[in-house]
Amino acid sequence: MDLEIAMLLGQDGVTNGAIYALLALALVLVFAVTRVIFIPQGEFVAYGALTLAMIEAGRLPGTVWLLLAAGVLVVALDGLDALRRGGVGRLMKVVGWNIVYPLALVALMRFVPTDTWPLAAKVALTMAVVVPLGPMIYRVAYQPVAEASVLILLIVSVAVHVAMVGLALLFFGAEGSRTSAFSDASFTVGPMMVSGQSLWVIGTSLALIVALALFFGRTIYGKALRATAINRAGARLMGISPALAGRLTFMLAALIGALSGVLIAPIATIYYDTGFLIGLKGFVAAIIGGLASYPIAALGAILVGVLEAFSSFWASAYKEVIVFTLIIPVLVWRSLTSHHVEEDE
Amino acid sequence: MANILEVKDLCVSYGKVEALHNANLTVGEGQIVTVIGPNGAGKTTLLSAIMGVLPSRGEISFDGSVERVPEVERMVSRGMNLVPEKRELFGEMSVEDNLVLGAFQRYRMGLRDHAGTMEEVYALFPRLKERRSQMAGTLSGGERQMLAVGRALMARPKLLMLDEPSLGLAPLIVREIFRIIGELRKRGVSILLVEQNARAALQVADEAYVLETGEVAMSGPARQLADDPRVIEAYLGLGGKHQDRLAVTGE
User: Fold this and answer.
1) What are phi and psi of B91, to 5 degrees?
2) What confidence tens digit (pLDDT) does each residue in A76-135 have?
3) pLDDT tens-digit readout, A299-317
4) Chain B contacts of A239, Cβ < 8 Å?
5) Taking all residues of chain A, what is their mean pLDDT, rounded to a whole number?
6) What ranges do the domains of chain A cover?
7) Where are the transmembrane segments (chain A) (predicted)?
Protein backbone atom coordinates (compact mmCIF):
# COMPACT_ATOMS: atom_id res chain seq x y z
CA MET A 1 0.00 0.00 0.00
CA ASP A 2 1.36 3.39 -0.86
CA LEU A 3 0.46 6.76 0.58
CA GLU A 4 -2.04 7.53 -2.18
CA ILE A 5 -4.11 4.45 -1.51
CA ALA A 6 -3.92 5.05 2.23
CA MET A 7 -5.18 8.58 1.71
CA LEU A 8 -7.98 7.35 -0.48
CA LEU A 9 -9.04 4.71 2.03
CA GLY A 10 -8.80 7.25 4.84
CA GLN A 11 -11.07 9.60 2.93
CA ASP A 12 -13.54 6.79 2.31
CA GLY A 13 -13.42 5.82 5.94
CA VAL A 14 -14.01 9.33 7.22
CA THR A 15 -16.87 9.84 4.75
CA ASN A 16 -18.62 6.66 5.83
CA GLY A 17 -17.66 7.40 9.42
CA ALA A 18 -19.49 10.73 9.19
CA ILE A 19 -22.65 8.86 8.23
CA TYR A 20 -22.16 6.33 11.03
CA ALA A 21 -21.61 9.22 13.41
CA LEU A 22 -24.97 10.72 12.53
CA LEU A 23 -26.69 7.37 13.02
CA ALA A 24 -24.84 6.75 16.28
CA LEU A 25 -25.99 10.14 17.59
CA ALA A 26 -29.57 9.30 16.65
CA LEU A 27 -29.34 5.93 18.40
CA VAL A 28 -27.90 7.47 21.58
CA LEU A 29 -30.58 10.17 21.51
CA VAL A 30 -33.46 7.74 21.04
CA PHE A 31 -32.17 5.46 23.77
CA ALA A 32 -31.56 8.28 26.23
CA VAL A 33 -35.00 9.80 25.84
CA THR A 34 -37.22 6.77 25.26
CA ARG A 35 -35.04 3.75 26.30
CA VAL A 36 -35.72 2.28 22.84
CA ILE A 37 -32.83 0.54 21.09
CA PHE A 38 -33.79 1.77 17.68
CA ILE A 39 -32.89 -1.04 15.31
CA PRO A 40 -34.99 0.44 12.46
CA GLN A 41 -32.71 3.50 12.40
CA GLY A 42 -30.97 2.05 9.33
CA GLU A 43 -34.28 1.56 7.54
CA PHE A 44 -34.72 5.31 7.46
CA VAL A 45 -31.40 5.49 5.60
CA ALA A 46 -32.68 3.08 2.97
CA TYR A 47 -36.09 4.78 2.84
CA GLY A 48 -34.43 8.18 2.34
CA ALA A 49 -32.05 6.96 -0.36
CA LEU A 50 -34.61 4.87 -2.25
CA THR A 51 -37.37 7.46 -2.04
CA LEU A 52 -35.01 9.98 -3.60
CA ALA A 53 -34.08 7.43 -6.28
CA MET A 54 -37.78 6.86 -7.09
CA ILE A 55 -38.41 10.59 -7.32
CA GLU A 56 -35.42 10.93 -9.66
CA ALA A 57 -36.81 8.13 -11.80
CA GLY A 58 -40.12 9.98 -12.01
CA ARG A 59 -42.05 7.30 -10.13
CA LEU A 60 -44.33 7.64 -7.15
CA PRO A 61 -42.41 6.26 -4.12
CA GLY A 62 -44.35 3.70 -2.08
CA THR A 63 -43.20 5.38 1.13
CA VAL A 64 -45.84 8.04 0.59
CA TRP A 65 -48.55 5.34 0.77
CA LEU A 66 -46.96 4.06 3.97
CA LEU A 67 -47.11 7.61 5.30
CA LEU A 68 -50.83 7.72 4.50
CA ALA A 69 -51.47 4.30 6.05
CA ALA A 70 -49.55 5.18 9.22
CA GLY A 71 -51.41 8.48 9.35
CA VAL A 72 -54.77 6.70 9.17
CA LEU A 73 -53.66 4.45 12.05
CA VAL A 74 -52.61 7.46 14.12
CA VAL A 75 -55.98 9.13 13.54
CA ALA A 76 -57.73 5.90 14.50
CA LEU A 77 -55.72 5.81 17.74
CA ASP A 78 -55.81 9.51 18.61
CA GLY A 79 -58.88 10.91 16.86
CA LEU A 80 -61.44 10.20 19.56
CA ASP A 81 -59.14 11.39 22.31
CA ALA A 82 -58.39 14.63 20.44
CA LEU A 83 -62.09 15.26 19.91
CA ARG A 84 -62.87 14.67 23.59
CA ARG A 85 -60.08 16.88 24.85
CA GLY A 86 -59.79 19.67 22.34
CA GLY A 87 -63.01 19.55 20.34
CA VAL A 88 -63.31 19.65 16.57
CA GLY A 89 -60.37 22.03 16.18
CA ARG A 90 -57.96 19.57 17.75
CA LEU A 91 -59.40 16.70 15.71
CA MET A 92 -58.99 18.67 12.48
CA LYS A 93 -55.36 19.29 13.39
CA VAL A 94 -54.73 15.56 13.89
CA VAL A 95 -56.53 14.69 10.64
CA GLY A 96 -54.71 17.48 8.83
CA TRP A 97 -51.23 16.31 9.76
CA ASN A 98 -51.88 12.61 9.43
CA ILE A 99 -54.22 12.25 6.46
CA VAL A 100 -54.50 15.52 4.53
CA TYR A 101 -50.74 16.07 4.49
CA PRO A 102 -49.88 12.64 3.01
CA LEU A 103 -52.71 13.02 0.48
CA ALA A 104 -51.32 16.40 -0.52
CA LEU A 105 -47.91 14.80 -1.06
CA VAL A 106 -49.48 12.04 -3.19
CA ALA A 107 -51.28 14.64 -5.29
CA LEU A 108 -48.15 16.73 -5.63
CA MET A 109 -46.05 13.81 -6.83
CA ARG A 110 -48.71 12.45 -9.11
CA PHE A 111 -49.64 15.65 -10.92
CA VAL A 112 -46.46 17.72 -10.77
CA PRO A 113 -43.43 16.44 -12.68
CA THR A 114 -41.15 16.44 -9.63
CA ASP A 115 -38.40 14.54 -11.50
CA THR A 116 -37.49 17.76 -13.31
CA TRP A 117 -37.05 19.66 -10.05
CA PRO A 118 -33.56 20.67 -8.98
CA LEU A 119 -31.79 18.18 -6.71
CA ALA A 120 -32.22 20.30 -3.57
CA ALA A 121 -35.99 20.36 -4.07
CA LYS A 122 -36.06 16.61 -4.59
CA VAL A 123 -34.11 16.12 -1.39
CA ALA A 124 -36.55 18.39 0.45
CA LEU A 125 -39.46 16.38 -0.96
CA THR A 126 -37.82 13.13 0.14
CA MET A 127 -37.44 14.48 3.65
CA ALA A 128 -41.05 15.66 3.61
CA VAL A 129 -42.15 12.09 2.85
CA VAL A 130 -39.82 10.09 5.11
CA VAL A 131 -39.35 12.25 8.24
CA PRO A 132 -43.00 12.27 9.43
CA LEU A 133 -42.86 8.46 9.43
CA GLY A 134 -40.69 8.68 12.55
CA PRO A 135 -43.25 10.19 14.94
CA MET A 136 -46.04 8.11 13.40
CA ILE A 137 -44.10 4.89 14.02
CA TYR A 138 -43.49 6.04 17.59
CA ARG A 139 -47.21 6.65 18.08
CA VAL A 140 -48.32 3.34 16.60
CA ALA A 141 -45.60 0.94 17.76
CA TYR A 142 -43.89 2.39 20.83
CA GLN A 143 -46.20 4.77 22.66
CA PRO A 144 -48.65 2.03 23.79
CA VAL A 145 -45.75 0.21 25.50
CA ALA A 146 -43.66 3.25 26.42
CA GLU A 147 -43.46 2.25 30.09
CA ALA A 148 -42.41 -1.33 29.36
CA SER A 149 -38.92 -2.71 30.00
CA VAL A 150 -35.97 -2.12 27.67
CA LEU A 151 -36.22 -5.73 26.53
CA ILE A 152 -39.84 -5.40 25.41
CA LEU A 153 -39.04 -2.15 23.63
CA LEU A 154 -36.17 -3.98 21.91
CA ILE A 155 -38.53 -6.73 20.76
CA VAL A 156 -40.87 -4.08 19.34
CA SER A 157 -37.85 -2.58 17.55
CA VAL A 158 -37.07 -5.93 15.94
CA ALA A 159 -40.68 -6.20 14.77
CA VAL A 160 -40.68 -2.67 13.36
CA HIS A 161 -37.37 -3.40 11.63
CA VAL A 162 -38.65 -6.58 9.98
CA ALA A 163 -41.86 -4.86 8.91
CA MET A 164 -40.00 -1.90 7.45
CA VAL A 165 -37.57 -4.10 5.50
CA GLY A 166 -40.49 -6.12 4.10
CA LEU A 167 -42.34 -2.99 3.09
CA ALA A 168 -39.15 -1.62 1.49
CA LEU A 169 -38.94 -4.71 -0.71
CA LEU A 170 -42.57 -4.13 -1.70
CA PHE A 171 -42.09 -0.42 -2.39
CA PHE A 172 -38.69 -0.36 -4.05
CA GLY A 173 -38.17 -3.89 -5.37
CA ALA A 174 -35.05 -5.98 -5.03
CA GLU A 175 -32.99 -3.80 -7.36
CA GLY A 176 -30.40 -1.49 -5.87
CA SER A 177 -30.38 2.19 -6.68
CA ARG A 178 -27.87 4.97 -6.80
CA THR A 179 -28.76 8.62 -7.14
CA SER A 180 -26.94 11.41 -8.93
CA ALA A 181 -24.15 13.09 -6.99
CA PHE A 182 -24.64 16.42 -5.26
CA SER A 183 -21.40 17.55 -6.84
CA ASP A 184 -19.16 16.09 -9.51
CA ALA A 185 -16.29 18.33 -8.55
CA SER A 186 -13.09 16.91 -7.20
CA PHE A 187 -10.14 18.66 -5.67
CA THR A 188 -6.52 17.76 -5.45
CA VAL A 189 -5.00 18.41 -2.08
CA GLY A 190 -1.36 17.46 -2.17
CA PRO A 191 -1.23 13.78 -3.11
CA MET A 192 -4.93 13.28 -2.36
CA MET A 193 -7.97 13.47 -4.61
CA VAL A 194 -11.00 14.69 -2.65
CA SER A 195 -14.38 14.13 -4.24
CA GLY A 196 -17.06 16.76 -4.00
CA GLN A 197 -19.56 14.21 -2.68
CA SER A 198 -17.24 13.31 0.22
CA LEU A 199 -17.05 16.96 1.15
CA TRP A 200 -20.83 17.19 0.97
CA VAL A 201 -21.22 14.20 3.27
CA ILE A 202 -18.67 15.41 5.82
CA GLY A 203 -19.83 19.02 5.64
CA THR A 204 -23.51 18.18 6.00
CA SER A 205 -22.79 15.81 8.88
CA LEU A 206 -20.80 18.46 10.70
CA ALA A 207 -23.48 21.05 10.05
CA LEU A 208 -26.17 18.70 11.34
CA ILE A 209 -24.12 17.90 14.46
CA VAL A 210 -23.68 21.62 15.16
CA ALA A 211 -27.39 22.19 14.56
CA LEU A 212 -28.28 19.38 16.96
CA ALA A 213 -25.90 20.76 19.58
CA LEU A 214 -27.56 24.17 19.27
CA PHE A 215 -31.00 22.58 19.42
CA PHE A 216 -30.19 20.73 22.64
CA GLY A 217 -28.23 23.56 24.20
CA ARG A 218 -30.30 26.59 23.31
CA THR A 219 -33.94 25.77 22.59
CA ILE A 220 -36.54 24.92 25.21
CA TYR A 221 -37.70 21.85 23.25
CA GLY A 222 -34.13 20.56 23.08
CA LYS A 223 -33.73 21.13 26.79
CA ALA A 224 -37.03 19.35 27.38
CA LEU A 225 -35.69 16.27 25.58
CA ARG A 226 -32.50 16.33 27.67
CA ALA A 227 -34.59 16.74 30.80
CA THR A 228 -36.68 13.70 29.86
CA ALA A 229 -33.49 11.71 29.36
CA ILE A 230 -32.15 12.81 32.77
CA ASN A 231 -35.31 12.52 34.86
CA ARG A 232 -38.52 11.27 33.32
CA ALA A 233 -40.66 11.83 36.43
CA GLY A 234 -39.37 15.36 36.89
CA ALA A 235 -39.97 16.16 33.24
CA ARG A 236 -43.59 14.99 33.46
CA LEU A 237 -44.17 17.31 36.40
CA MET A 238 -43.06 20.19 34.15
CA GLY A 239 -45.70 19.15 31.65
CA ILE A 240 -43.24 17.49 29.26
CA SER A 241 -45.20 14.39 28.36
CA PRO A 242 -43.26 11.24 27.47
CA ALA A 243 -45.40 10.97 24.34
CA LEU A 244 -44.37 14.42 23.15
CA ALA A 245 -40.72 13.72 23.91
CA GLY A 246 -40.96 10.37 22.11
CA ARG A 247 -42.53 11.83 18.98
CA LEU A 248 -40.01 14.65 18.84
CA THR A 249 -37.10 12.24 19.33
CA PHE A 250 -38.33 9.91 16.63
CA MET A 251 -38.78 12.84 14.29
CA LEU A 252 -35.13 13.77 14.84
CA ALA A 253 -34.06 10.14 14.38
CA ALA A 254 -36.02 9.91 11.12
CA LEU A 255 -34.56 13.22 9.97
CA ILE A 256 -31.03 12.06 10.68
CA GLY A 257 -31.67 8.67 9.06
CA ALA A 258 -33.29 10.04 5.90
CA LEU A 259 -30.64 12.71 5.49
CA SER A 260 -27.89 10.10 5.87
CA GLY A 261 -29.61 8.05 3.19
CA VAL A 262 -29.80 10.99 0.83
CA LEU A 263 -26.11 11.73 1.45
CA ILE A 264 -24.89 8.18 0.98
CA ALA A 265 -27.09 7.29 -2.01
CA PRO A 266 -24.70 8.80 -4.62
CA ILE A 267 -21.62 6.96 -3.27
CA ALA A 268 -23.07 3.54 -2.50
CA THR A 269 -25.70 1.39 -4.12
CA ILE A 270 -28.56 1.09 -1.68
CA TYR A 271 -30.82 -1.94 -1.64
CA TYR A 272 -34.05 -2.32 0.28
CA ASP A 273 -32.20 -4.09 3.11
CA THR A 274 -28.91 -2.15 3.08
CA GLY A 275 -30.09 0.10 5.88
CA PHE A 276 -29.76 -2.60 8.51
CA LEU A 277 -26.00 -3.06 8.05
CA ILE A 278 -25.41 0.70 7.96
CA GLY A 279 -27.51 1.13 11.07
CA LEU A 280 -25.65 -1.69 12.83
CA LYS A 281 -22.34 0.06 12.21
CA GLY A 282 -23.81 3.20 13.73
CA PHE A 283 -24.87 0.97 16.60
CA VAL A 284 -21.31 -0.32 17.10
CA ALA A 285 -20.20 3.31 17.37
CA ALA A 286 -23.01 4.08 19.81
CA ILE A 287 -21.96 1.10 21.93
CA ILE A 288 -18.39 2.44 22.01
CA GLY A 289 -19.95 5.51 23.59
CA GLY A 290 -21.89 3.30 25.99
CA LEU A 291 -25.20 4.43 24.44
CA ALA A 292 -24.74 7.55 26.54
CA SER A 293 -21.85 9.69 25.33
CA TYR A 294 -22.39 11.68 22.13
CA PRO A 295 -18.76 12.70 21.51
CA ILE A 296 -17.34 9.21 22.13
CA ALA A 297 -20.03 7.74 19.86
CA ALA A 298 -19.05 10.18 17.11
CA LEU A 299 -15.35 9.34 17.46
CA GLY A 300 -16.22 5.65 17.55
CA ALA A 301 -18.11 6.12 14.28
CA ILE A 302 -15.03 7.57 12.58
CA LEU A 303 -13.02 4.62 13.92
CA VAL A 304 -15.62 2.19 12.52
CA GLY A 305 -15.55 3.94 9.14
CA VAL A 306 -11.77 3.96 8.84
CA LEU A 307 -11.47 0.37 10.07
CA GLU A 308 -14.05 -0.68 7.51
CA ALA A 309 -12.26 1.12 4.68
CA PHE A 310 -8.87 -0.40 5.45
CA SER A 311 -10.19 -3.88 6.09
CA SER A 312 -12.02 -3.78 2.76
CA PHE A 313 -8.64 -3.19 1.15
CA TRP A 314 -6.70 -5.89 2.98
CA ALA A 315 -9.36 -8.50 3.56
CA SER A 316 -12.47 -7.43 1.75
CA ALA A 317 -14.24 -10.75 2.34
CA TYR A 318 -13.90 -10.21 6.08
CA LYS A 319 -14.60 -6.50 6.29
CA GLU A 320 -17.92 -6.83 8.11
CA VAL A 321 -16.46 -9.48 10.40
CA ILE A 322 -13.60 -7.18 11.34
CA VAL A 323 -15.88 -4.22 11.99
CA PHE A 324 -18.31 -6.14 14.13
CA THR A 325 -15.54 -7.95 15.99
CA LEU A 326 -14.48 -4.52 17.19
CA ILE A 327 -17.44 -4.62 19.53
CA ILE A 328 -16.01 -7.49 21.57
CA PRO A 329 -12.90 -5.72 22.96
CA VAL A 330 -15.04 -2.62 23.44
CA LEU A 331 -17.58 -4.53 25.50
CA VAL A 332 -14.85 -6.25 27.52
CA TRP A 333 -13.21 -2.92 28.21
CA ARG A 334 -16.50 -1.30 29.15
CA SER A 335 -17.56 -4.09 31.45
CA LEU A 336 -14.17 -3.97 33.18
CA THR A 337 -14.15 -0.20 33.66
CA SER A 338 -17.77 0.61 34.39
CA HIS A 339 -19.85 -0.56 37.30
CA HIS A 340 -23.01 -2.41 36.55
CA VAL A 341 -26.05 -0.27 37.16
CA GLU A 342 -29.37 -1.95 37.80
CA GLU A 343 -32.13 -0.73 35.58
CA ASP A 344 -34.33 1.21 37.96
CA GLU A 345 -37.40 1.59 35.80
CA MET B 1 -64.21 32.58 49.04
CA ALA B 2 -63.98 30.26 46.04
CA ASN B 3 -62.18 26.99 46.37
CA ILE B 4 -59.28 26.34 44.07
CA LEU B 5 -59.25 22.63 44.86
CA GLU B 6 -62.00 20.32 46.06
CA VAL B 7 -61.31 16.65 46.62
CA LYS B 8 -64.24 14.36 47.35
CA ASP B 9 -64.09 10.72 48.42
CA LEU B 10 -60.68 10.12 46.91
CA CYS B 11 -59.49 6.51 47.08
CA VAL B 12 -56.14 5.16 45.93
CA SER B 13 -55.14 1.50 45.97
CA TYR B 14 -51.81 -0.19 45.39
CA GLY B 15 -53.09 -3.54 44.22
CA LYS B 16 -55.32 -4.78 47.03
CA VAL B 17 -53.92 -2.41 49.61
CA GLU B 18 -55.91 0.76 49.95
CA ALA B 19 -53.50 3.61 50.68
CA LEU B 20 -56.10 6.34 50.76
CA HIS B 21 -59.74 5.92 51.73
CA ASN B 22 -62.50 8.46 51.03
CA ALA B 23 -60.31 11.50 51.58
CA ASN B 24 -62.09 14.86 51.46
CA LEU B 25 -60.17 18.09 51.29
CA THR B 26 -60.61 21.64 50.08
CA VAL B 27 -58.13 24.41 49.46
CA GLY B 28 -59.52 27.93 49.32
CA GLU B 29 -58.09 30.47 46.94
CA GLY B 30 -55.04 32.16 48.44
CA GLN B 31 -54.98 29.77 51.39
CA ILE B 32 -52.25 27.61 52.77
CA VAL B 33 -53.63 24.22 53.65
CA THR B 34 -51.45 21.66 55.34
CA VAL B 35 -51.77 17.90 55.59
CA ILE B 36 -49.88 16.41 58.52
CA GLY B 37 -49.60 12.87 59.70
CA PRO B 38 -47.14 10.09 60.42
CA ASN B 39 -45.02 8.20 57.90
CA GLY B 40 -47.07 5.97 55.63
CA ALA B 41 -50.34 7.77 56.34
CA GLY B 42 -50.83 8.39 52.61
CA LYS B 43 -49.78 12.04 52.41
CA THR B 44 -47.57 11.65 49.35
CA THR B 45 -50.15 9.32 47.82
CA LEU B 46 -52.76 12.05 48.23
CA LEU B 47 -50.67 14.62 46.38
CA SER B 48 -49.68 12.15 43.65
CA ALA B 49 -53.31 11.22 43.06
CA ILE B 50 -54.44 14.85 42.86
CA MET B 51 -51.67 15.54 40.36
CA GLY B 52 -52.58 12.52 38.26
CA VAL B 53 -49.31 10.67 38.82
CA LEU B 54 -51.27 7.84 40.47
CA PRO B 55 -54.64 6.49 39.33
CA SER B 56 -57.46 7.17 41.80
CA ARG B 57 -61.21 6.98 42.28
CA GLY B 58 -63.28 9.87 43.51
CA GLU B 59 -63.80 13.41 42.40
CA ILE B 60 -61.18 16.08 42.00
CA SER B 61 -62.31 19.52 40.98
CA PHE B 62 -59.66 22.11 40.29
CA ASP B 63 -60.18 25.77 39.51
CA GLY B 64 -63.89 25.35 38.88
CA SER B 65 -64.01 22.23 36.73
CA VAL B 66 -64.06 18.55 37.57
CA GLU B 67 -61.17 16.34 36.44
CA ARG B 68 -62.55 12.84 35.96
CA VAL B 69 -59.17 11.32 35.25
CA PRO B 70 -56.48 13.80 36.20
CA GLU B 71 -53.49 13.68 33.87
CA VAL B 72 -50.20 15.25 34.87
CA GLU B 73 -49.57 17.31 31.73
CA ARG B 74 -53.12 18.64 31.73
CA MET B 75 -53.02 19.56 35.41
CA VAL B 76 -49.76 21.45 34.82
CA SER B 77 -51.30 23.32 31.91
CA ARG B 78 -54.26 24.25 34.12
CA GLY B 79 -52.01 25.74 36.79
CA MET B 80 -51.30 22.97 39.28
CA ASN B 81 -47.73 22.20 40.23
CA LEU B 82 -46.19 19.60 42.49
CA VAL B 83 -42.79 19.83 44.15
CA PRO B 84 -42.23 16.17 44.92
CA GLU B 85 -40.47 14.85 47.97
CA LYS B 86 -37.52 13.66 45.88
CA ARG B 87 -37.30 17.10 44.15
CA GLU B 88 -36.77 15.34 40.78
CA LEU B 89 -34.35 17.99 39.50
CA PHE B 90 -32.45 17.70 36.22
CA GLY B 91 -29.08 17.05 37.84
CA GLU B 92 -26.85 17.32 34.79
CA MET B 93 -28.40 20.60 33.68
CA SER B 94 -27.71 24.10 34.93
CA VAL B 95 -29.84 25.84 37.53
CA GLU B 96 -31.04 28.24 34.87
CA ASP B 97 -32.02 25.44 32.46
CA ASN B 98 -33.96 23.75 35.26
CA LEU B 99 -35.85 26.98 35.82
CA VAL B 100 -36.52 27.53 32.10
CA LEU B 101 -38.02 24.04 31.88
CA GLY B 102 -40.35 24.93 34.72
CA ALA B 103 -42.03 27.24 32.22
CA PHE B 104 -42.17 24.57 29.50
CA GLN B 105 -45.95 24.10 29.54
CA ARG B 106 -46.55 27.88 29.50
CA TYR B 107 -44.10 28.22 26.61
CA ARG B 108 -45.98 25.52 24.72
CA MET B 109 -49.23 27.35 25.26
CA GLY B 110 -47.71 30.46 23.74
CA LEU B 111 -47.05 32.33 27.00
CA ARG B 112 -43.39 33.23 26.52
CA ASP B 113 -42.84 35.38 29.60
CA HIS B 114 -40.31 33.14 31.33
CA ALA B 115 -37.56 35.78 31.41
CA GLY B 116 -39.67 37.99 33.67
CA THR B 117 -40.79 35.10 35.86
CA MET B 118 -37.19 34.05 36.28
CA GLU B 119 -36.27 37.47 37.65
CA GLU B 120 -39.08 37.11 40.21
CA VAL B 121 -37.81 33.66 41.22
CA TYR B 122 -34.27 35.03 41.50
CA ALA B 123 -35.59 37.84 43.69
CA LEU B 124 -37.17 35.25 45.96
CA PHE B 125 -34.08 33.00 45.96
CA PRO B 126 -31.00 35.20 45.44
CA ARG B 127 -28.93 32.08 46.07
CA LEU B 128 -30.18 30.52 42.85
CA LYS B 129 -29.08 33.55 40.88
CA GLU B 130 -25.55 33.21 42.26
CA ARG B 131 -25.51 29.58 41.17
CA ARG B 132 -27.40 29.96 37.90
CA SER B 133 -24.77 28.33 35.68
CA GLN B 134 -23.92 25.56 38.16
CA MET B 135 -25.19 22.02 37.54
CA ALA B 136 -28.26 21.28 39.65
CA GLY B 137 -26.67 18.03 40.82
CA THR B 138 -23.88 19.92 42.58
CA LEU B 139 -26.17 22.02 44.77
CA SER B 140 -26.56 21.53 48.52
CA GLY B 141 -29.78 20.07 49.92
CA GLY B 142 -31.29 23.43 50.78
CA GLU B 143 -30.39 24.90 47.42
CA ARG B 144 -31.94 21.92 45.70
CA GLN B 145 -35.19 22.47 47.55
CA MET B 146 -35.08 26.16 46.61
CA LEU B 147 -34.51 25.17 42.99
CA ALA B 148 -37.36 22.66 43.08
CA VAL B 149 -39.73 25.32 44.45
CA GLY B 150 -38.37 27.95 42.07
CA ARG B 151 -38.79 25.62 39.12
CA ALA B 152 -42.42 25.00 40.06
CA LEU B 153 -42.99 28.75 40.43
CA MET B 154 -41.76 29.26 36.88
CA ALA B 155 -45.08 27.76 35.76
CA ARG B 156 -46.91 30.58 37.64
CA PRO B 157 -49.10 28.01 39.39
CA LYS B 158 -52.52 28.73 40.83
CA LEU B 159 -52.01 25.89 43.26
CA LEU B 160 -48.59 24.84 44.45
CA MET B 161 -48.34 21.47 46.16
CA LEU B 162 -45.27 20.94 48.33
CA ASP B 163 -44.37 17.47 49.52
CA GLU B 164 -42.21 17.55 52.65
CA PRO B 165 -40.28 20.69 51.67
CA SER B 166 -38.33 20.64 54.94
CA LEU B 167 -37.30 16.98 54.75
CA GLY B 168 -33.63 16.43 55.42
CA LEU B 169 -32.76 20.10 55.64
CA ALA B 170 -30.78 21.91 58.32
CA PRO B 171 -32.93 23.89 60.81
CA LEU B 172 -31.90 27.28 59.44
CA ILE B 173 -32.80 26.23 55.92
CA VAL B 174 -36.13 24.90 57.15
CA ARG B 175 -36.87 28.31 58.57
CA GLU B 176 -35.96 29.90 55.25
CA ILE B 177 -38.25 27.53 53.37
CA PHE B 178 -41.19 28.32 55.65
CA ARG B 179 -40.48 32.04 55.34
CA ILE B 180 -40.78 31.64 51.57
CA ILE B 181 -44.01 29.67 51.88
CA GLY B 182 -45.43 32.60 53.85
CA GLU B 183 -44.09 34.99 51.22
CA LEU B 184 -45.80 33.04 48.44
CA ARG B 185 -49.16 33.32 50.18
CA LYS B 186 -48.78 37.08 50.19
CA ARG B 187 -48.37 36.89 46.43
CA GLY B 188 -51.68 35.06 46.10
CA VAL B 189 -50.43 31.51 45.43
CA SER B 190 -52.63 28.85 47.00
CA ILE B 191 -50.56 26.17 48.66
CA LEU B 192 -51.21 22.58 49.67
CA LEU B 193 -48.42 21.65 52.05
CA VAL B 194 -47.63 18.13 53.19
CA GLU B 195 -45.34 18.12 56.20
CA GLN B 196 -43.94 16.00 58.95
CA ASN B 197 -42.74 19.09 60.73
CA ALA B 198 -46.24 19.59 62.13
CA ARG B 199 -45.41 22.53 64.34
CA ALA B 200 -43.99 24.69 61.57
CA ALA B 201 -46.72 23.60 59.16
CA LEU B 202 -49.55 24.43 61.57
CA GLN B 203 -48.08 27.86 62.25
CA VAL B 204 -47.87 28.86 58.62
CA ALA B 205 -51.15 27.28 57.45
CA ASP B 206 -54.75 28.51 57.46
CA GLU B 207 -56.44 25.13 57.42
CA ALA B 208 -55.10 21.75 58.39
CA TYR B 209 -55.90 18.09 57.92
CA VAL B 210 -54.53 15.18 59.90
CA LEU B 211 -54.13 12.05 57.82
CA GLU B 212 -53.82 8.72 59.62
CA THR B 213 -53.63 5.30 57.92
CA GLY B 214 -55.15 6.58 54.71
CA GLU B 215 -58.06 8.48 56.25
CA VAL B 216 -58.65 12.06 57.30
CA ALA B 217 -58.72 11.80 61.08
CA MET B 218 -59.14 15.49 61.94
CA SER B 219 -59.55 18.74 60.10
CA GLY B 220 -60.13 22.38 60.89
CA PRO B 221 -58.46 25.76 61.14
CA ALA B 222 -54.73 25.29 61.69
CA ARG B 223 -54.61 27.35 64.89
CA GLN B 224 -57.44 25.34 66.38
CA LEU B 225 -55.75 22.07 65.50
CA ALA B 226 -52.47 23.28 66.97
CA ASP B 227 -54.26 23.62 70.31
CA ASP B 228 -56.08 20.30 70.08
CA PRO B 229 -54.79 18.01 72.82
CA ARG B 230 -54.77 14.96 70.52
CA VAL B 231 -52.65 16.77 67.96
CA ILE B 232 -50.33 18.09 70.65
CA GLU B 233 -49.83 14.65 72.05
CA ALA B 234 -49.34 12.84 68.73
CA TYR B 235 -47.56 15.39 66.57
CA LEU B 236 -46.33 18.37 68.51
CA GLY B 237 -45.14 16.79 71.75
CA LEU B 238 -44.41 18.66 74.92
CA GLY B 239 -40.65 18.69 74.69
CA GLY B 240 -40.62 20.11 71.21
CA LYS B 241 -39.81 23.65 72.24
CA HIS B 242 -36.77 23.80 69.98
CA GLN B 243 -39.11 23.39 67.04
CA ASP B 244 -41.01 26.48 68.17
CA ARG B 245 -37.94 28.55 67.69
CA LEU B 246 -37.46 27.16 64.20
CA ALA B 247 -40.98 27.70 63.05
CA VAL B 248 -41.92 31.06 61.72
CA THR B 249 -45.31 32.54 61.10
CA GLY B 250 -44.45 34.11 57.79
CA GLU B 251 -45.27 37.55 59.08
Assistant:
1) -60, -40
2) 999 888 888 778 888 998 999 999 999 999 999 888 888 888 989 999 999 999 999 999
3) 999 999 999 999 988 888 8
4) 72-73, 76-77, 104-105, 108, 155
5) 90
6) 3-58+113-174+191-337
7) 17-37, 66-83, 95-113, 119-138, 150-174, 194-216, 248-271, 283-310, 317-336
Partners of residue B100 in chain A, C-beta under 8 Å: 220, 223
For A3-58+113-174+191-337, CATH gives: 1.10.3470
Q: Are B121 and B180 contacting, i.e. CB atoms less than 8 angstroms apart?
A: no
Q: Is the pLDDT of residue A194 over 50?
A: yes
B178 exposed, middle or buried (CB, 10 Å; 0-12, 13-18, 19+)? Answer: buried
Residues A152-165 have a mean pLDDT of 96
Q: Considering the entire predicted model, what is its pTM?
A: 0.89
| Topology annotation, domain B3-79+157-246 | Rossmann fold (3.40.50)
ipTM over 0.90: no
* Cα angle B169, B171, B172; round to 5: 105
Spatial separation of the C-alpha atoms in residues B216 and A44, rounded to whole Å: 56
